[in-house]
UniProtKB/TrEMBL annotation:
Cellular component, GO annotation: cytoplasm
Keyword presence, Oxidoreductase: yes
Protein name: Taurine dioxygenase
Segment forming the signal sequence: none
Lineage of producing organism: Bacteria, Bacillati, Actinomycetota, Actinomycetes, Micromonosporales
One GO MF term attached to the UniProt entry: taurine dioxygenase activity
Species this chain originates from: Actinoplanes digitatis
Domain of life: Bacteria
Length: 330
């Protein structure tokens, strides 16, 4: 098989997030040097766009693998038939991700990166928006940064996809049952330190249900306040899909949102995620499981959770919050 060129042409798209990669054919083998250069560009720009690629599943898996070991498709949602690492992202009424979120933060080792390739795209609508959560943290006034640095949030998959009654359908209810077939609750720092760049970012999003040690009302207000910085227009990028596009985003320091503005038109993407590490907060404490297992069937990185469990208590949030009763953090 022919080899992709080793020097990609990186063209910035947005002022704070996003770059288009030109001159790289992802259907070819990706050398270690090219993979390293693409990873460097991903850490810097957060979202990389590759136009007119038209990959098959094999090439998609090979491309994603250039960024590291792969997860399986999803902790609870079935994969594409015969492809354990590929998740079909389709625009059915039950599965539209029209809420800002970071992928799979309800497990202790969320993905490092998510890759998407477009198969069927509606003639209008269906864009995906991305947000730079490191820029959001940098935008916070000093007093809010100091507060955020100390906070921990509970992330869970048991949340309401159809929070507005008019969007509750039988399909949405069935999808929710599958999505929460195994319930996960994980404590993550509200401010995560990026393992490669060292930059702090707001690690929240749609799966963050509450702030440890605070009431639901207080949690909701604080999460909404921090989230408003994430989704400031200056921190976002809107990608208009065409068939054949491939997009990869750094799941450790972004959120994304799929715009639900294409009615009943078909829209289908394939998703492959790259295994990530256990998040670390501003004080050096690491995320930990509150309910459910570490999803070892989903990510090879989760095997380290058994090691984390034996580490000193200084690796947990201060003030005893890690040991709080479930009622206090749910």
């Amino acid at each position: 098989m022919t080899i992709a060129p080793t020097t990609p042409d990186v063209r910035r798209i947005g002022g704070r997030i996003g770059a288009e990669i030109v001159g790289v054919d992802l259907s070819r083998d990706i050398t270690a040097d090219l993979g390293a250069r693409l990873n460097t560009a991903l850490v810097e720009h957060k979202v990389l766009v590759f136009r007119d690629q038209h990959l098959d599943d094999e090439a998609h898996l090979r491309f994603a693998g250039a960024f590291g070991p792969l997860t399986t498709a999803h902790p609870t949602v079935p994969s594409v038939d015969g492809q354990a690492n590929i998740l079909a992202v389709q625009g059915g009424e039950g599965a539209r991700a029209n809420a800002w979120h970071t992928d799979v933060t309800f497990v202790v080792a969320p993905p490092k990166a998510t890759t998407l390739r477009s198969l069927v795209i509606p003639p209008y609508g269906g864009d995906t928006l991305f947000a730079n959560t490191a820029a959001a943290y940098a935008d916070l006034p000093e007093h809010l940064r100091l507060l955020a640095d100390r906070l921990w949030a509970v992330h869970t998959n048991d949340h309401d996809y159809a929070e507005h009654p008019q969007f509750r359908t039988s399909e949405a209810e069935e999808y929710h049952k599958v999505f929460v077939g195994q319930r996960y609750r994980t404590a993550h720092p509200v401010v995560r330190i990026h393992p490669e760049s060292g930059a702090p970012n707001l690690f929240i999003g749609g799966f963050a249900s509450s702030i440890i040690g605070l009431s639901q009302t207080e949690s909701r207000d604080l999460l909404r306040l921090f989230q408003s910085y994430v989704t400031r227009p200056e921190n976002t990028l809107r990608h208009h899909w065409a068939v054949g596009d491939v997009v990869v985003f750094d799941n450790r320091t972004t959120q994304h949102y799929a715009a639900d503005d294409y009615g009943d038109l078909p829209r289908k993407l394939h998703r492959v995620t790259v295994a990530g590490d256990v998040p670390v907060g501003a004080d050096g404490a690491k995320s930990h499981v509150l309910e459910g297992d570490e999803a070892g069937h989903y990510t090879p990185q989760a095997g380290r959770v058994s090691e984390l469990a034996s580490e000193p208590s200084t690796q947990r949030p201060p003030n005893g919050t890690a040991g709080a009763p479930a009622e206090a953090v749910a």
